[in-house]
Amino acid sequence: MLLLILSATIQAFFSPGGGVRDAIIKELSNAKEQIDVAMYIFTDRELLHALLDASKRGVRVRVVLDAEKAMEIKYSKHHFLEGKRMEVRLDKSHLSRKGKYQGIMHNKFSIIDGKVLITGSYNWTHSAEDLNDENILIIKEAEDVTKQYKKEFTKLWKRASPFKNPPILDPYNKSKLKKNIGEWVIIIGRPSNWNISRSGHLFVDFGESKDDFTFLLWKEGVNKLKEKGFDFERLDNSVVELRGKLILHEKYGLEIVTDNPDAIKIQ
User: Is the separation of the CB atoms in 205 and 242 below 8 Å?
Assistant: First the structure.
């Protein structure tokens, strides 16, 4: 399809070091009504919080992610988006037009207020921002082009499945935990111990052997909690709610490992 965009305003950004993330956040911060995102991989914490801020302002946020990658990557942000009452759908692998091969939802674009289009090779990830050679275009005043992307997003949204709330598990029921390895879960219980290591990471333990469940929050997340005034001492006698992807580490046993401060709450 040939579309004329002679009157459009188009900006190009490149990574690493080209200000891609900041350019996206700037546009998200200007959203008034709606943000639609179709993203193959979404793990970037700063972009997550930009969407959270938009949602708090009353902006409707809809996100479609590739289901296989979202469930595979432990830092995928779909769970946290849904937990903040934003609309999230996961697109499962689908057959190609010829009907023989599995496909993936490999798009990387967003539409803001139906007027601003952001598209390119850039996934919303730390690697895309700081490591990879990536690009985006921010396109404005191109109604025909944006209309085509809105049509594509609508198709993806209808095809994708709503993200369902994960199971709630007892951290001391190891047999039940093991049945949910590789899945996103909510774990609620009273810790047996916790500490912040010399490296600045938070460990919340539920038992004393390596076979017991442990929650690990990386230093970046701990620093965010400190900025928010999180009372770590309350972990001594409180029930906590933990969210994330449950893994079985060959050395450290059952774990949730994350950098997201929203993954831990004191009830």
Answer: no
Contact (Cβ atoms closer than 8 angstroms) between residue 139 and residue 10? yes
Regarding the domain delimited by 168-266, which CATH topology (the fold level of the hierarchy) does it fall under? OB fold (Dihydrolipoamide Acetyltransferase, E2P) (2.40.50)
Query: Is 3.40.50.1010 the CATH classification of the domain at 9-162?
Result: no
CA contacts within 13 A on the Cβ side of 192: 10
Domains of the chain: which residue ranges?
9-162, 168-266
Q: Tens digit of pLDDT for each residue in 55-73?
A: 999 999 999 999 888 888 8
Predicted structure pTM score: 0.71
Q: CA 266, 69, 50: angle at the middle one, nearest 5?
A: 55
Catalytic residues: 106, 108, 113
The two tokens of residue 234 are 């309350």
Q: In whole angstroms, what is the distance from residue 122 CA to residue 124 CA?
A: 6
Structure tokens at 214: 């442990």
